[in-house]
TrEMBL record:
One of its GO terms (biological process) is base-excision repair, AP site formation via deaminated base removal. Belongs to the uracil-DNA glycosylase (UDG) superfamily. UNG family. Residues 50-211 form the Uracil-DNA glycosylase-like domain. This is Uracil-DNA glycosylase. One of its GO terms (molecular function) is uracil DNA N-glycosylase activity. The active site is at D65 (proton acceptor). The gene is ung. It comes from the Bacteria.
């Protein structure tokens, strides 16, 4: 696995790359990709960082695992490649944007357009074996992505963190709430959304309101 990551992140993450756990993680991922079908493609593993530089990051959305079916994962949490059917959680995200901002439901589920505006779409685990959800969890990725969250918290200010669901909410301990903006809600998955824990959270308008107050460009969701 080639750690090909945007140069703006390297000064903050170089120490992680040199730690024993990361070297073991690299060995594990290399072996998995050589012997099994895994997602996303090798060149897309660090997509979240390569399209959203450290200095450009304004918003952080935390997911759990990449999609594990063919053609879906593109290295950005909740995002799918152009032309791919929208998964249920993404459908509910788009439905909330429709209600919250009055925008039309988008044709494309590729959230690269968000990344390029400063939204870091961070999965806690960056790789997965095909058709085997969670197969690359607890191999070191979570240690790495937790370090990223802490690094952002410590070295930046006024970042909007969107924590959706129980898993993401646990990351609040990594974030300094005195210098950042933390919005929490239920997960956009059908199970959570249908129980009333997702729809109506207004996170997209609230995020843009925070960004406007800070005098920075708001997100074109």
């Amino acid at each position: 696995m080639n750690v090909d990551i945007h140069p703006s992140w390297k000064p903050y993450l170089e120490t992680e790359f040199n730690k024993p756990y990361f070297k073991s993680l690299v060995d594990f991922v290399k072996d998995e990709y050589e012997n099994y079908t895994c997602f996303p493609s090798g060149k897309e593993i660090f997509n979240a960082f390569n399209h959203c530089g450290f200095d450009d990051t304004q918003v952080v959305i935390i997911g759990q695992d990449p999609y594990h079916n063919f053609g879906q994962a593109n290295g950005l949490c909740f995002s799918v490649k152009e032309g791919i059917t929208h998964p249920p959680s993404l459908i509910n995200i788009f439905k909330e944007i429709e209600k919250d901002l009055g925008l039309p439901y988008p044709k494309s589920g590729d959230l690269l357009r968000w990344s390029k505006q400063g939204v870091l779409l961070l999965n806690a685990t960056l790789t997965v074996r095909a058709h085997n959800a969670g197969s690359h969890q607890k191999k070191g990725w979570e240690t790495f992505t937790d370090a990223i969250i802490k690094t952002i918290s410590e070295n930046k200010s006024d970042i909007v963190f969107l924590l959706w669901g129980g898993f993401a909410k646990k990351k609040v301990k990594l974030i300094d709430s005195n210098k950042h903006h933390i919005l929490t809600s239920g997960h956009p998955s059908p199970l959570s959304a249908n129980r009333g824990y997702w729809f109506g959270n207004g996170h997209f308008s609230k995020t843009n309101s925070i960004l406007r107050d800070l005098g920075v460009p708001f997100i074109q969701w």
